[in-house]
């Protein structure tokens, strides 16, 4: 009896592993190729669609309706940082949690403190620095229709 149970578990693992591999291969393959109604081959349509979707890795803004438009760059920011990326972060903080920061491009103690408040509210690592995780949450929260939060 125990032996049959063991082989059943092994069979289920194989099925689940195969299903996971299939799901991964489908998700990596991209959208299905669909021919346009005016005679364009499916492969050409697929190539055109994937070309339109490609963007440089540095562009992570929400799109043309982004509430802040100082820059598309998302470098790591911390106390002492300055420039348009800091202005972008300050703008996001203002929209995401109603911070009322001056969008002056200076990452000082006030911006650091508000960043920590945001991180606490978002439930992410609280370090007062703006790295990839904080950028991701900031851009999403700032552009959410229900903002500000907290």
Structural overview:
- This protein has two domains: 2-53, no CATH class; 56-150, Muramoyl-pentapeptide Carboxypeptidase, domain 1, CATH 1.10.101.
- The N and C termini lie far apart (56 Å).
- Helix 3 crosses helix 4 and helix 3 (84-97) packs across helix 5 (132-142).
- The longest helix has 28 residues, at 2-29.
- It contains five helices and no strands.
- Residues 1-27 and 33-62 have low confidence and may be disordered.
- By secondary structure, the protein is mainly alpha-helical.
Any chance you could write out the topology, listing elements then pairs?
Elements: H1 2-29, H2 42-53, H3 84-97, H4 109-122, H5 132-142
Helix pairs in contact: 3-4, 3-5
Principal-axes shape call:
globular
Give me the CATH architecture of the largest domain, please. Orthogonal Bundle
Low-confidence stretches: 1-27, 33-62
Along the chain, the helix and strand elements come as HHHHH
N-to-C CA distance? 56 Å
Tell me the β content.
Answer: under 5%
Q: Largest sheet at a glance?
A: none
Which percent bin holds the helix content?
40-55%
CATH class of the largest domain: Mainly Alpha
The CATH homologous superfamily of the largest domain is named PGBD-like superfamily/PGBD
Q: Write down the Rg.
A: 23 Å
Which characteristics define this entry?
150 residues, mainly alpha, Muramoyl-pentapeptide Carboxypeptidase, domain 1, 2 domains, disordered N terminus
Question: Short summary of the structure?
Answer:
The protein is built from 5 helices and no strands. With 150 residues, it is mainly α.
């Amino acid at each position: 009896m125990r032996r049959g149970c063991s082989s059943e578990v092994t069979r289920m693992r194989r099925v689940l592993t195969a299903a996971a591999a299939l799901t991964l291969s489908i998700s990596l393959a991209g959208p299905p190729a669909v021919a346009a109604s005016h005679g364009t081959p499916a492969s050409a349509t697929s190539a055109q669609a994937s070309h339109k979707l490609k963007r440089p890795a540095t562009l992570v803004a929400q799109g043309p309706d982004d509430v802040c438009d100082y820059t598309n760059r998302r470098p790591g920011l911390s106390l002492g940082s300055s420039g348009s990326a800091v202005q972008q972060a300050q703008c996001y903080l203002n929209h995401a949690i109603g911070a009322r920061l001056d969008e002056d491009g200076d990452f000082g103690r006030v911006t650091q403190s508000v960043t920590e408040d945001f991180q606490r509210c978002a439930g992410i690592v609280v370090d007062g620095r703006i790295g990839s995780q904080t950028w991701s949450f900031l851009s999403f929260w700032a552009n959410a229709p229900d903002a500000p939060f907290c």
